[in-house]
Amino acid sequence: MTSVAPTFVPAAVRTDTPVPAVGTLARRDARTRLLAGLGLWAGLLVVTYWWVAGGGVQDLAGWASGLTSAGRLTGLLSADLLLVQVLLMARVPVLERAFGQDRLARTHRLVGFTSFTLMALHIALITWGYAAGKILATPGTLWQLVRDYPGMMLAAGGTAALVMVVVTSIKAARSRLRYESWHLLHLYAYLGVGLALPHQLWTGQELLTSAAATAYWWTLWGAAAAAVLVFRLGLPAWRTLRHDLRVASVVPEAAGVASVYVTGRDLHRLPVVSGQFLTWRFLTGAGWTRAHPYSVSAAPDGRSLRITVKDLGDGSADVPRIPTGTRVVVEGPYGRLSARARVRDGGVVLVAAGVGITPLRALLEDVDVAPGRAILLYRYTGTPLFAEEIRTLAAERGIDVRWLPGPRGADGGWLPASADGYDPVAVLRHWVPDVPDCDIYVCGPDAWAADVRRTALAAGTPADQIHVESFGW
Question: Residue limits of the FAD-binding FR-type domain (predicted)?
Answer without folding.
Answer: 240-340
